[in-house]
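*** Fold description ***
***
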Amino acid sequence: VNLTTQKRLAAAVLKCGKRKIWLDPNEVNEISNANSRQNIRKLAKDGLIIKKPVLIHSRYRVREHLAAKRKGRHTGTGKRQGTSDARMPTQVLWMRRQRVLRRLLRKYRESGKIDKHMYHQLYLKSKGNVFKNKRVLMEYIHKAKAEKTRAKLIADQAEAHRVKSKAARERKAQRAAAKKDILSSEVPAQ
């Protein structure tokens, strides 16, 4: 018995492909009598014609493979297709690094950890590829600040020394002048 028409009608009625239609092999005669969509609907309702479930396409193996790749498996030279620059462009890495460094510099300038002069100096240095990452830049800033405070301390000490020695010189000069006055005032008395 040829049921191609019934299968076509059933596919249209149940809104699926012909390969998804199951016709009950025990009820072939009854199904062959169905020549309209209305009859097909009735048979579907009675369960003589069934829409088969969608076949499962499991992603289990894919997930397992990706989990292994996250651990670093299957990524050797034999598994690589593009050049290293195509896989992770150096330009992207550079942009990321610059953004990180510039963000840090902005934050430090706003919080007052560095002044605008030091900010500009470090901005140009980071553009000139001096700092390979954030940690190196932070260390450099700490070192530079320590150096600055040390230089200031030394300068202050030197200034204090100059002031002190100048005051001592002046006192000495005053004493000498006073002595001279006394001597000169004593001379006519004789």
